[in-house]
Amino acid sequence: MLPEETARSKLKFKGNDRRCLECDTDMSNRHASARFCSYPCREKYRNKKGTLTDTVRERYCLQCEADISHRHINTVYCSMKCSVAYRGIAAKPDVNKECLNCGKDVTQKRNMAKYCSRSCRGMYTARIHRERKTAALSKQATHAARYNNPDIGKK
Prior knowledge:
Elements: H1 7-12, H2 39-49, H3 80-87, E1 95-98, E2 105-108, H4 118-147
């Protein structure tokens, strides 16, 4: 069976009238949404349209004025050090807390630290789960005792 006769090719490829926008070559064998025959053709077309330019705009770090022309277009600092210095961000002080499981001091830079180690976190989580399960079972037992007791409601 020829490729143009398959149902898939009828859906995937549309007609013979499609041409590359840059070099005007036939693109009947390309995917239906393709507008260019190759990557170089696409880049040539984009350069002609002015979306890409061959000249690089000179840019400098806002803090130390080092050349950052070679970096991404949105980059404004040459390093994280310059970013912090320019914006005046001070280093975060250490946060002293007690471990929820064992009570040891937890000294970390993150405010969210609650445990001194992973093992303490695991033990604390297991203990809380066990306590919740026990509380749920006792609540069920109280409920069962209250509503399954034949003496309730009699005078």
